[in-house]
Amino acid sequence: MTFATDEEIKIAHDILLKGKKPFDVSRIDIIKENNSCYVQASPGSGKTTTLLAKLIILANKMPLPDGKGVCVLTHTNVAIDEIKAKLGQKADVLFRYPNFFGTIQTFLHKYVTAAALHYFYGSQIAYVDDDMANAVLLKKYGRLPIRGSKLKGLIYARTISKEHLIEVDEIEALGGVDMLMAAKVIKRKGKRVHKYDFQLGKYDWNKIPENIKALIRTKRDGIIDSQGKEIILSFRIDWFNDKIITNSGLIGICTEAGAEYVKLKEEMFTEGILSFNDAYDLAFRYIQEKSLNFSSFSDKRFKYLFVDEIQDCDNQQVEFIKKIFADNKVIVQRFGDYCQSIFEGEENDGVENEELKDDQVLYIRNSNRFGEKIAKPLRTLCMEDNRQLVGNEDVPSIKPIIITYEDPLSVLPKYVELLKITSIPEMSNLSVLEIANNEKQEDPLHRVNVKACGWVGKKGSSEQKRFIASYFPAFERKNVRIRTEGDSFNDFMPKNPNGTVKDYATSIIQGILKFLDLCDIKNGNRRHTRTSLLEFLAENSLEQKEIFLNKVMNWALLVVKSNGDDVANIKTTIYQYITTVLLPLCGKEITVDADNFFNAISNRIQNAQVVEQGNIYHGTDIDVEVATVHAVKGETHASTLYLETFYYGHHESERLSEQFKGVVYTGEDERILKNLRVAYVGMSRARYLLCVAIQKNRFDNMDCAELREIWDCLLYTSPSPRDS
To answer: Are residues 561 and 603 in the same domain?
Structure first.
């Protein structure tokens, strides 16, 4: 029995892609598939659209036989909002019982962790949040007595056993090398005179002036405080083996230090405060201790499970899905691309995700995003033989360009120049920049744009080690978005052509915070922040917090797609929510100042004051956002510049030189495979133009006819005049 008829597929297509080409054979086969399977999809293949087509067909069939529903698990609430936006009214029936749409974390918390917390500690979930949990843990830890606490003694011992580097300017502030060496405050490490190991004790105080002693104590206390916090936040309880896992070994739960730590965590659990790891750990403890078979629950409620972006599941999520859903009872369909599995770390090594691939694998080999010229290098810049990747014949891509450089600061100016002068004959000889600007206007929701991205964003770049900051010194790994401040709520709803949905959501929240401040609603004696407001809402009910975030995201989506008239209607909806929900929750009434602020017509709507700036390179007539590859995953750009960076001894041009020449990698070196996944994600964002920056001497070592068949090479050795 197939999932859908041809007519049902046509109806879904007309809703999602009216006016565009019908689904091809591979996508139709996936839509019709009615058994458990894994869908391996190429970048920009429209796998989410294929999933949405299945959901539309299911919506028209509701209720399903036996009253069962569908479960859709994603990784972010943004994905949920996108489903709602694209399905429109069709989403209503899908978001009602017995169906479940949400993140894996939300499902875990609602159906397992909440029960576990009540069973073990008689409490309810107040927060599942790493920042909140860490803050509470550190507060409780700080209250432990300095003397008599075995846990604090353990943390102190581990702190002073570590090497602590001190820089030249700190050495000078503490009295200079000679005095500090004589007083045993520092010791030389090798022949490097600019860095030393900082010792936390055994000083010869007689050789240290009184004013310097105070500075040293401050330095010492700062190390103990910061690194002590780092150490305790690395602890994690292994309930099955009665151990505490740390970055430097195991601690028995039955030891005095271990028992102190467990007591702190259990106090938090009694208060309903958990980290994300706590939520999983308690869930698995509950399942094992009670010998629960959750697959019987899922079988009774769900006929289908769909998991989007399955490759981004960490090992905990993989294990959780396997415990909750049994393939022989629920039809489980997983959508993803394991070649793009880049979110790796302690909980995700990119290997165990393979366990979620079904025996039946269905492929989407062709990309809707880019043409054949960009598809060509991606066939070998991939962790597996990707020769079957097919570019979109309707997308006229430019042959990819390698920008060589001697000065990394010249790369972004040259990229901007290329965007302006590189034209596409099939598109009326418009430049890539003109095309990007046009598409940005047509599709603001997805923000088709130009970006530069690289793998490693840390500080400390040099001639031998290029990081993103080598090309853009102002780069910050935690990108701070643009925030507005103004005298009218209108100032918080500007139409910025470079803005994302997230930018608008952030701005709307800032406007709401100012409104609340004018109603004398504060966090203590200070204005609420986003974090403190969410904490307040969660204290009322976790559902209230989720409702607020969903409303804000929906408002932001509407603003992005709106014209001037629509904004007034959106404002009315926001005003009603604030005055009928938020103000009563706070026990306050609207003030004259707040009402005037909300309803005033500002003269500065287009010029709202920018108080924070993101990672933006400002060129002439164009802004280029600079980001990590991890930050741009899932995006589509009119043009992408990939910045080679240094990772574990090599740059991409060294580690992947043969793959740049069109040679498939068949080895098993984990660092090469990891690099291939990152490069594949970063370079597959481009729609029309892909550029890669490589230092000239490294390019010279790999240059050959095979490479130039795939890449145009711009031998660029002198800096361009800096764009303002």
So the answer is: yes
3-state DSSP percent of the chain in helix, strand and coil, to 5: 50, 15, 35
Q: Does 724 reside within a domain? A: no
Residues 550 and 600 in one domain: yes
pLDDT of residue 608: 38
> For residue 81, which phi and psi values (nearest 5 degrees)?
-65, -35
638-661 pLDDT, tens digit per residue, is: 999 999 999 989 999 999 999 999
The answer to whether 158 and 231 are in contact (CB under 8 A) is: yes
Of 452, 466, 402, nearest to 646 (Cα)? Answer: 466
Average pLDDT across the chain, whole number: 83
Residue 280 lies inside a defined structural domain of this protein: no
pLDDT digits (tens, 9 = 90+) for 9-18: 999 898 888 7
Q: Which pLDDT tens digit goes with each residue over 461-481? A: 777 899 999 999 988 866 544
Question: Mean per-residue pLDDT for 601-626?
Answer: 62
Which structural domain, as residue segments, surrounds residue 226?
130-274
Residue 185 tokens, joined: 């405050």
Helices 77-87, 501-518: axis angle to 10 degrees equals 100
Assess whether 222 and 263 both reside in one domain. yes
Q: Nearest Cα to 555, choosing from 531, 521, 578, 536? A: 578
CATH code of residue 693: 3.40.50
The SS3 call for residue 166 is strand
pTM reported for the whole predicted model:
0.73
- 107: Cα within 13 Å, side-chain hemisphere: 23
Return the amino acid letter for 516: L
Q: What token pair was written down for 171? A: 């050495």
How many domains does the chain divide into?
4
Write down which residue in 344, 364, 384 finishes a domain.
364
